[in-house]
Amino acid sequence: EHVLVKPEASEIRLRYGEQTTHVILPLPGLFNVYNLLAAAAVAYDLVLPTSAITAGLSNYQSVFGRAEKKVLQGKNALIMLIKNPVGASEVLKLVGGDPKGKLLIALNDNYADGRDVSWIWDAQFEAIPTDKHVIVSGVRAEDMANRLKYAGIPEAHIQIEPDLKLALEKALDQTRLDEVLYILPTYTALLSLHKMLG
Questions:
Q1: Is residue 163 annotated as a catalytic residue, yes or no?
Q2: What mean pLDDT value characterizes the chain?
Q3: Residue 62 pLDDT
Q4: 148-176 per-residue burial string, b: 16 or more CB within 10 A, e: under 16
Q5: What letter would DSSP give residue 144?
Q6: Please, how many CA atoms are within 13 Å of residue 130, restricted to the half-sphere of its CB?
Q7: Strands annotated E in 100-154
């Protein structure tokens, strides 16, 4: 009946049969609201009570790179894997909706990522506000910087740091305590990030 999507969570008034229940979804983005609605529809079809949905949400923990929340140097970070145009576009809409959020994108083209990074041209990087400063990293940092220029981000707002560790340090230095650092890595950049963070 009602959805309020916020950068880190969503509030949903869910009609479940004859009942209406208020649900807090501890995941960002409208795409996760759709996932919840699909799960609720299956639960309803299986005649599960609303308590099953709320229990599932209260016990939910983000998995490896899927809207994974971290506190790094006292600052809130949200790590979201990007690997194809559709998923990346949804994540970019979320990032674009947070005017204060900082952004680090790490693009690799290692075997596990897929060698072809042309998918970045089909992802909606235009959702990023043109006044946002972006740090790009990874093996294909230059390609990502070029894509952002075509999306309308001024060259002066794009900082290229191929070394992921240095890029993360710079991004954290530029993030205030009241802001969220959005980290959007491809798969092998995500693996490197996890090794770095222990």
A1: no
A2: 91
A3: 65
A4: beebebeeebbbebeebeebbebbbeebe
A5: H
A6: 7
A7: 102-106, 134-137
Contact between 185 and 79 under an 8 Å Cβ cutoff? The reply is yes
| Model pTM above 0.90 | no
- Specify the amino acid at residue 156: A
Residue 12 burial by Cβ neighbours in a 10 Å radius (0-12, 13-18, 19+): buried
Active-site residue, from 45, 116, 131, 178: 116
Q: State the chain's maximal CA–CA distance in angstroms.
A: 56
Written as six digits, the tokens of 96 are: 């674009």
Quick one: CA dihedral 159, 163, 168, 173, positive or negative?
negative
Q: For residue 14, which of 43, 159, 142, 83 has the smallest C-alpha distance?
A: 43
- How far is the C-alpha of 103 from the C-alpha of 138, rounded, in Å? 14
In this predicted model, what pLDDT tens digit does every residue of 104-132 receive, in sequence order? 999 999 999 999 999 999 999 999 999 99
Residue 125's pLDDT is what? 98
Q: Which residues fall within 8 angstroms of residue 6, CB to CB, at 6 or more apart?
A: 28
C-beta separation of 106 from 137 below 8 A: yes
3-state secondary structure of 87: helix
Q: Residue 7 has what pLDDT?
A: 65
Give the model confidence (pLDDT) of 33-89 as tens digits: 888 888 888 988 888 888 888 788 777 766 666 788 899 999 999 999 999 999 999
C-alpha to C-alpha distance for 92 and 194, rounded to whole angstroms: 22
